[in-house]
Amino acid sequence: MLVLWIAADWPLGPLGAGYLVSVHTVQYLLFTMVAPPLLLHGTPRWLLRAKLGHRWVGGVARVLSRPLIAFVVFNVVLLATHLPAVVDTLKSSQAGSFAIDAAWLFAGLVFWWQVLGPLPELHPLSYPGRILFLLLNVFIPTVPAAFLTFADYPIYAVYELAPPLGWISAREDQQLAGLIMKLVGGMIIFGTASVLFFRWYVREEREETA
After folding, report:
1. Fewer CB atoms near the end CB (10 Å): N or C, the chain?
2. Dihedral in degrees, nearest 10, Cα atoms 113, 43, 95, 29
3. Has this prediction a pTM greater than 0.85?
4. What is the DSSP letter of 161?
């Protein structure tokens, strides 16, 4: 909850809403890559089961717990919320900014549910499956990251027309955003995959020696 507060409140909230696309990218990472795994890991299983006890909620959860569905949901939200038309339209209002933040959080929860697998009854992925799922999600974020890094001009009008802050240009800010998305996002995914691989190795060693 603290991570969500930091991502949405001052100074990240106002700066990401209409001043710096690099801060917008930091918010994206906090909403999708940091807060969701902490929320899922920190929520007791009994509480998750209680929330999923409702028929329609449980049905939706079973659909979203399928790896292919989760892959599509996460990456469609990623690409859609970085399209210039979407960003320029929604970031111009507080409600639109909230809609983007909510979409990021939802996609992040769907994504990390595959990795953490908190409820056995929803058939979580094996360790190799979780690692593969993470690695497959490295490639698509490269698309918006590349556009941000290598575009010859600012692609978002809302950030290009924002009052200048004096220490960074709109194009430099955009390039920084692309690097943050690619490098920091990749570090989180590869770091998590490494931890899962280590846990898988330890479990296999214990089963062999048992």
Report:
1. C
2. -50
3. yes
4. T
